[in-house]
User: What shape does this take?
Amino acid sequence: MLASERHQKILALLDEQGTARTVDLAENFAVTDETIRRDLQILADNHLISRVHGGASCLSGVRRLQSFAERTSIRVEQKKAIAKAAQEWILPNHTYAFDSSTTAMELVTSLPDLEYRVVTNAYAVIDHLVRLEEVEVISTGGRFHPKTNTFNGPESIATLRRHNINTAFISCIGLDERRGASEGFEEQAGYKEILVKMAEKVILLVDSSKLGQRSEYFFSDLRDITHIITDSEADPHFVEQLQNQGCRVTLA
Assistant: This one.
């Protein structure tokens, strides 16, 4: 691969992820750390990225808001592992909430057809669960946002407030060790902020690529998350930081 081609791929990756570590880029492109450091310096000298300790970030420092369709093909195996680990939380005669994340959707597609209630603002969740006979599905309503595949707005929040939610399954674009979970879409962040406050338990389903990242809108402190489920590729140091702050973490 030519250096110029690698530079374009690095820029595209930073646009999606917000930040990236040198070691991960080197592994991804099958080159040495030193080669990646030279690439990053060239891009930084041309004012295309910002250098940070151990890697680089896009100039905004945040991830681009990706569509639901884009997200379905990213880190699929990690999401499946996380979803499998989360299945133990599903019991009959409970009320669950699912956000519009593709990680939560992996869990939804594996749900047994039992008597429980699901409250959601995610079109894909509704579309799947209405095919099951025993599950009661409640749409929060609201204005449809096609890129995130969600219903949002005052109507959605009002419906959410009426229900007693036993467990909320949510994800995020980034999980920062100090400020918590963040989203790239303000209305969705506002919805999740209310959901986190209302639910008895909050299970954060977050693949390892999002650890140590942050997006535009923070919606939950770490102390408000009952349990974090991530995949086995998670940085052990970051996981330790979470545990030192009292977070329960499962590696799937």
In short: DSSP finds ten helices and 15 strands in the chain.
